[in-house]
Design goal:
- With 248 residues, the chain is of the alpha/beta class.
- The chain has one domain: Thiamin diphosphate (ThDP)-binding fold, Pyr/PP domains (Rossmann fold).
- The chain is built from nine helices and seven strands.
- The chain has a seven-stranded mixed β-sheet, with helices on both faces.
- Strand 5, helix 7 and strand 6 form a beta-alpha-beta unit.
- The relative contact order is 0.15.
């Protein structure tokens, strides 16, 4: 009988702690599949800061490093410069990368650091009880915007891909989603290309991943996937923002 499903070797056998319907686990699997397919497990170092994925060092078989909140790009920069032949990636949420870590990510991209960033955007602070995040949508209800996000009071959502694509050091910038099978496959292709960009030494690469948070959105898992499609994608359009024609 042909094998149709197999756990990536780059993932451990540890049961994940994520809430039912959360798509962090899918993102983990895609990264692990890419690591396996490129044969780089022994040369890969992941960096995780504070957030829902703070302990994903127990989920990946490659080397993992814990960083302070928002500081993963700085830690990754140090690792990559000391070990330039290794593959270094960060795994960051929107409350981390687009809030306390904004300066870190902007300047890592500006410098063209040869790292790969996996940016999970679920439009909310997932770990700390559902507060408004920099990526929270206009009108979205959170624990700190109980009447919905209002631009005149809270400002507008931060669009990370659009922002970073203006920086010369960022060579590959793409936004993907995990709300259905087709887009999950597209997400894997983007992650793989981002790692190949790093392998080629071309510069900074980032893949923004629209992800669900059923618990803090107050929506069931199936409805949360629909919410990504109906609410998030109109604000955060999918596609390549830079580096589409790179040959790697």
């Amino acid at each position: 009988m042909d094998t149709v499903f197999k756990k990536p070797h780059a993932l451990t056998d540890t049961t994940m702690h994520y809430c039912p319907g959360c798509t962090h686990g899918i993102a983990h699997r895609l990264i692990a599949e890419v690591i396996d397919e490129l044969g780089i497990e022994g040369k890969t170092v992941g960096v995780s800061p504070v957030g829902c994925a703070y302990n994903n060092y127990i989920y990946f078989n490659c080397d993992m490093v814990q960083a302070a909140h928002g500081r993963a790009p700085a830690v990754a920069t140090g690792i990559k410069r000391v070990h330039p032949d290794n593959f270094v990636f960060t795994y960051q949420g929107d409350g981390d990368l687009a809030a306390i870590g904004t300066a870190e990510i902007v300047h890592a991209a500006t410098r063209g650091e040869k790292i790969t960033v996996i940016f999970i955007n679920n439009a909310i602070y997932g770990m700390t009880s559902g507060q408004m995040a920099p990526t929270t949508l206009i009108g979205q209800v959170t624990t700190t915007s109980p009447f919905g996000r209002k631009p005149e009071l809270h400002g507008y959502p931060v669009k990370v891909c659009e922002l970073l694509s203006t920086l010369e050091g960022a060579v590959y910038v793409e936004r993907v989603s995990l709300h259905d099978v087709k887009n999950i496959k597209n997400a894997k292709s983007a992650i793989k290309k981002a790692f190949k960009v790093q392998a080629a030494g071309l510069g900074f690469s980032i893949v923004e991943v629209l992800s669900s948070c059923p618990t803090n959105w107050g929506i069931n898992p199936v409805g949360a996937l629909e919410w990504i499609k109906d609410k998030m994608i109109p604000v955060y359009p999918l596609g390549n923002f830079k580096g589409k024609d790179l040959e790697v």
